[in-house]
């Protein structure tokens, strides 16, 4: 095996061991939403969004009001990325006039 | 350990994608490996936002008034990440078409002029 | 690529309006049900890709040039930014939701708690859903059309 292959195997084994150990040591899936339990997950920003999305944004869908109203700047950046990708693909396949 | 199965699924997806990127020679198989890594990261973002016995954060005519709801912000960030993944995949595939026209091969070890 | 047989063309003629109605429903009801601009735009773009496969890329490029698709996509992006800048006039904040509880259009008041859905609510959100949906449809269809047309064997092959 070449030097590149042995380096790739070592890197893969190190990353695999690191990922498996960190997945086993994470908190358990689905913390409870009741403040009296032991593994209570405190999320004040999302609780504020869920409570006030009908009066401020005027929509029943919490995810859409986050995407377009509370965090509209991220959607603007994503629309720019999509536009740039389409422009680059059309540019790569242009036809040179001979 | 039985309660960490979504996180183990994320790790499995990322490791299979990393194997395809490191140890395969065909260019299209490398692109499939990159897409698998992105799918694993999106799944990880969504599983961080689940609370126990919760439903989607949408107000319907539900008779249970004290229903807990999942967090909406990780789902919004995952939407952005999926769209960016589609854009990167389109660009990678168009570059592969261009490379095939120039070199007439899809083997990644025969590209480039400076083999040792 | 060349088109497929007459049976495939007839069936895709029948199925394409159904796919388009389903995708436009997902775009239009983005503020009430799961969905929105990006998801519905991907559904309609898949239907357009089905038409491209059934009729061949040379015929489709002859009917729909990619200049028209780029005009549509730019219109969607300009509409999205225009609505965001309009909020700057009405409330001194970028991306201000100036149509919620307004009463002009899409401005009914929403009762808090578990209520049935009312389509006339939402403020600025349905307009932004339409703009982003138009942008995604035109963008994804342009990508698929250009890549299918440039890899045809008899179309010159582009840059050699």
Structural features, described:
The complex is a heterotrimer of chains A (98), B (116) and C (160). Chain A folds into 2 domains: 31 residues, no CATH class; 56 residues, no CATH class. Chain A is built from 4 helices and no strands. Chain B is mostly helical. Chain B has a single domain, classed as Helix Hairpins. A two-stranded parallel ribbon of chain B has the order 1-2. Chain B is elongated, with a radius of gyration of 20 Å. The model of chain B has no long low-confidence stretch (mean pLDDT 90). Chain C has 160 residues and is an all-alpha fold. Chain C has one domain. Chain C starts with 5 loop residues before the first helix and ends in a 10-residue tail after the last helix. The mean pLDDT of chain C is 86. The chains are: A mainly alpha (98), B mainly alpha (116), C mainly alpha (160). Chains A and B meet through helix 1, helix 2, helix 3 and helix 4 of A and helix 1, strand 2 and helix 3 of B.
Briefly characterize the structure.
With 98 residues, chain A is mostly helical.
